[in-house]
Design brief:
Elements (H helix, E strand, L loop, with lengths): L1 E7 L3 E8 L2 E4 L10 E2 L2 E3 L5 E3 H10 L4 E2 L12 E3 L2 E3 L1 H17 L6 E8 L5 H13 L6 E5 H9 L7 E8 L4 E9 L2 E10 L4 H16 L7 H17 L5 E5 L8 E5 H25 L9 E5 L6 H8 L14 H6 L17 E2 L20 E7 L4 E6 L5 E6 L4 E5 L3 E5 L6 E6 L5 E5 L3 E5 L8 E4 L5 E6 L4 E6 L3 E6 L2 E7 L3 E6 L5 E6 L2 E6 L4 E6 L3 E6 L5 E6 L3 E6 L5 E6 L6 E4 L5 E5 L5 E6 L5 E6 L6 E4 L5 E5 L3 E6 L2
Parallel strand pairs: 1-10, 10-11, 12-17
Antiparallel strand pairs: 1-2, 2-3, 2-4, 5-6, 5-7, 8-9, 12-13, 13-14, 15-16, 18-23, 19-46, 20-21, 21-22, 22-23, 24-25, 25-26, 26-27, 28-29, 29-30, 30-31, 32-33, 33-34, 34-35, 36-37, 37-38, 38-39, 40-41, 41-42, 42-43, 44-45, 45-46
Helix pairs in contact: 2-3, 5-6, 5-7, 7-8
C-alpha cells in the first residue's frame, strides 16, 4: 500500500509517494521539475492546467490564471477565471487531483493514506477549507494534516541525532513557519512552533515590481495582464540572483527600455524588511523557550525563499546553517509521510523492580478517526489502594500511577513495576516533562520531581498551604500548580510566584508547545499566555475539565452541566458543542488524529468523539466509577483509572 505526502505551498506544490519500492518525487509533467508551480489556469477549451502548463497559458490569457491560492483562504471571496467564479478550495482541489494522477503513474500500489502540510498558524476554518480541497481533488482515503515546520524538522533530522537544539526556518512564498527542535538521547523532538502569513517571498516579488515601476516613471498603473507579466519577470530576476550578481529580464510593458535589471545589492535593500520581520518572529520563538541564538546547534532552512544568498547570509550570521540534502522545496513533502514505527523499546529496570503480566506494544498504528471504533480492552491492572492520577512518559515507556497512600507506581512497557514512595499524602496529579522528568503533586502540600526509573526524588518544592491537586510543566524547568489554598503558582526552579487567586482548581492543562495554560474552576475556564503572563480568553461557567490538542490547534472545555465544547486556539472560535448527561470531569486528546476522550467521575463510560463533528466514535465501559484517563504519546494506548484499577485500551 502506498502513502503520499503533499506540501500544498503558496509558490510550489511538492509531493512524494512512498511504497514498497521506496520514496519517489512526483514531477511536473510540463518540464520534469521536481515540484509543481502552485498555479492553476482554466483553458478556453474547458481543460484545467496546472504548473508549467498554467504558466504558459498565462502569457496569452492572464485572466484565466491564478497562483497565490493558499493566501486567498483567508477570505471567502471566489476567484474569477475567464469571467467564471470558482471557490478557492475547488481550485486547490484541481492541483491535488493532478498530483494524484501523476503519483498513480509512479506506483502500482493503491494509496492508503495521504499526508498534507499546513502552515503552523492555520486555524480550524482554513484547515477545513484544505480538507474540502482534498475532497474536491478526489481523495477518498484517510488524510492527516501536519504543521509544515514539524514535517520539515522530521525530514531534516531524520534518524537519530545528537543532543542539541535546532531552529527550522521555513520561508515560502506566502508564509513563514518556524519550529524549535531538540535532540534528546538520539531522538528529535519538536518543542514549539510559530507561523505567520504576514511574511513571505511574494512580498519581495512585489517590492521588485514597485522598484521597476518607479524607475519607468509611469503615469498610470499597468494593465492587469502587464502587471502579471511584470511580476513573473520580477520572480525570474530574483531566481537569477541565486547564482548571479546582476539579473536581466525582458520588459513586458510597451514603454521604457526593452530590458530591466536588478542587482543583488538592490535586492538586498528590498529584502531587508522581509528578512528583518522573519528573524524577529524567530527571535520571539526562541525567547519564549528561553533559548538564545548562541544556544542553537544550527538553523535548518527550507522553503523556496531560502534559496536566496541574501537570506542565507543573514541566517548564517546568527547560527550555523545546516546543509540540506536536496532542494529546499522538497523538504516539507519528504517529512510528511511518517517513518515506519520503531520496534518496541528494550527497558532496563532497576534490580528492585517487580514484574507483572502486563505488556503493551509501543509500535502500533496511531489512532485516527477511521480506526477509532476498533478499540479493544487489552488489560486490567489492579492496585490495593485507590488510583488518583495517571501519566505516560514522552517515549511511552512508562505509565506512572499515583495512589491514595502516597505511592507512585511506574509500570514499564515490558510489565515491570517500580515504586516511588517519598510522598506522605495522596498523589493527586502527575506530569512528565518533554525531557522525561516526572512531577508529582500531593496532599502532603509538596511537589516532588523524579527522573524515572530512579526511585529517589531529585527535588522537593514547598510553597502551597494546602493539598496540591494539579501540576503541569510550562518549560524545561518551569512548573505551574494549583492547590486547595485557592492559588495558582508558577515555579521557576525552587522559587514560586502566586499568579492568580481563585476558587479551588478542578483541572489544569498546558499546550504541547508550553506557551498556553488552561485553568478550570468553579469560576470558569481561563486561558493564559505564558509569554505575557496574561489571561487572553475566559469562559464564565463552572468548569470541571480542560485539555489541549497536541498539534496546538484546539482546546476542549468540560462543564459541570455536562456541556463539552471544542475551541480553536487561533481565534478562539467554537468548533463543536456536545451535550452530555453527566458533568465532564476528565478530558484527553489523542496525540494523533482528531479524537477526544471524555468521562465523568460519577459515570463508568468513556466516550471517544470526533473533534470536528462531535460524533461519538466509541464508548468504553467499565465496572466502577472513573477517576482519570490518559493517552500514551504514541497514540497506541488509552489508560483509564477507576477506584482500584487501571484499564489499558488498545486504540490503534
Amino acid at each position: 500500500m502506498a502513502k503520499i505526502g503533499i506540501d500544498l505551498g503558496t509558490w510550489s506544490v511538492a509531493a512524494v509517494i512512498v511504497d514498497a519500492q521506496g520514496e519517489r518525487v512526483v514531477p511536473d509533467p510540463g518540464n520534469g521539475q521536481q515540484w509543481f508551480r502552485a498555479a492553476v489556469a482554466a483553458s478556453p477549451d474547458g481543460a484545467w492546467l496546472i504548473g508549467q502548463a498554467a504558466e504558459t497559458l498565462r502569457v496569452t490569457h492572464p485572466d484565466r490564471y491564478r497562483d497565490d491560492l493558499k493566501r486567498l483562504l483567508r477570505t471567502p471571496a471566489p476567484v474569477y477565471l475567464g469571467g467564471t467564479a470558482h471557490p478557492v478550495h475547488e481550485l486547490l482541489g484541481v492541483l491535488v487531483r493532478r498530483v494524484l494522477e501523476r503519483a498513480a503513474l509512479l506506483s502500482a500500489e493503491p494509496v492508503e493514506a495521504v499526508y498534507v502540510g499546513v502552515p503552523a498558524d492555520f486555524e480550524a476554518g482554513r484547515q477545513d477549507l484544505v480538507r474540502q480541497a482534498l475532497t474536491a481533488g478526489g481523495i477518498r482515503v484517510p488524510v492527516t494534516l501536519t504543521p509544515e515546520p514539524v514535517a520539515a524538522a522530521r525530514a531534516m533530522l531524520e534518524g537519530e541525532v545528537g543532543d542539541g537544539t535546532w531552529l527550522v526556518f521555513d520561508l515560502g512564498g506566502g508564509t513563514l513557519d518556524l519550529a524549535l527542535v531538540a535532540g534528546r538521547s538520539g531522538t528529535p523532538q519538536v518543542l514549539d512552533v510559530l507561523g505567520t502569513d504576514e511574511v513571505g517571498g511574494f512580498a519581495l516579488d512585489e517590492a521588485v515590481v514597485e522598484r521597476w515601476l518607479d524607475q519607468l516613471e509611469l503615469g498610470d498603473a499597468p494593465e492587469p495582464a502587464d502587471a502579471a507579466d511584470l511580476l513573473a519577470a520580477a520572480r525570474e530576476a530574483k531566481h537569477q540572483l541565486s547564482e548571479a550578481r546582476i539579473a536581466y529580464a525582458r520588459n513586458p510593458l510597451r514603454t521604457g527600455p526593452r530590458q530591466l535589471t536588478l542587482s543583488r545589492d538592490e535586492l538586498a535593500v528590498l529584502a531587508r524588511p522581509t528578512i528583518d520581520q522573519a528573524i524577529e518572529h524567530a527571535r520571539r520563538l526562541l525567547a519564549a523557550n528561553s533559548v538564545q541564538w548562541r544556544d542553537l546547534s544550527g538553523i535548518l532552512a527550507s522553503g523556496g525563499a531560502t534559496r536566496s544568498p541574501i537570506l542565507a547570509e543573514a541566517l548564517a550570521a546568527l547560527a550555523p546553517l545546516v546543509p540540506l540534502n536536496g532542494p529546499p522545496e522538497l523538504v516539507t513533502a519528504r517529512g510528511l509521510v511518517p517513518p515506519p514505527p520503531p520496534p518496541p523499546p528494550v527497558v532496563t529496570a532497576p534490580t528492585n523492580a517487580t514484574t507483572s503480566s502486563h505488556n503493551w506494544d509501543t509500535g502500533r498504528t496511531r489512532i485516527a478517526l477511521w480506526t477509532a471504533e476498533d478499540v479493544e480492552l487489552d488489560d486490567e491492572i489492579s492496585f490495593e489502594r485507590s488510583v488518583y492520577s495517571l501519566a505516560f512518559s514522552p517515549d511511552s515507556r512508562w505509565l506512572a500511577v499515583g495512589l491514595s497512600n502516597g505511592e507512585i507506581v511506574l509500570i514499564g512497557a515490558g510489565g515491570e513495576r517500580i515504586t516511588l514512595d517519598e510522598h506522605r499524602g495522596e498523589v493527586y496529579d502527575l506530569a512528565f516533562s518533554p525531557e522525561g522528568r516526572l512531577a508529582s503533586a500531593s496532599g502532603d502540600e509538596t511537589i516532588r520531581l523524579w527522573s524515572p526509573p530512579d526511585t529517589e526524588s531529585d527535588d522537593l518544592l514547598i510553597g502551597h498551604d494546602d493539598e496540591i491537586n494539579q501540576v503541569v510543566w510550562c518549560g524545561r524547568d518551569r512548573l505551574m500548580s494549583g492547590a486547595d489554598d485557592r492559588t495558582l503558582r508558577l515555579w521557576d526552579g525552587d522559587d514560586d510566584t502566586v499568579i492568580h487567586d481563585q476558587r479551588i482548581l478542578t483541572d489544569l492543562a498546558v499546550s504541547g508547545n508550553q506557551r498556553w495554560v488552561l485553568s478550570a474552576s468553579g469560576d470558569g475556564a481561563l486561558l493564559w499566555d505564558l509569554w505575557t503572563m496574561s489571561v487572553v480568553w475566559r469562559r464564565g461557567y463552572s468548569t470541571t475539565a480542560v485539555a489541549f490538542d497536541p498539534s496546538h490547534l484546539y482546546f476542549a472545555v468540560g462543564e459541570s452541566d455536562g456541556e463539552l465544547t471544542v475551541w480553536t486556539l487561533n481565534g478562539f472560535d467554537e468548533v463543536v458543542s456536545i451535550d452530555r448527561k453527566n458533568p465532564v470531569t476528565m478530558l484527553a486528546f489523542a496525540p494523533a488524529g482528531d479524537v477526544l476522550a471524555a468521562g465523568s467521575e460519577d459515570g463508568k463510560n468513556v466516550s471517544l468523539y470526533a473533534v470536528r463533528t462531535g460524533e461519538r466514535l466509541a464508548k468504553l465501559s467499565h465496572d466502577e466509577e472513573l477517576e482519570t484517563l490518559e493517552f500514551s504519546p504514541d497514540s497506541t494506548t488509552l489508560a483509564v483509572a477507576t477506584d482500584n484499577s487501571v484499564y489499558i485500551w488498545r486504540v490503534g
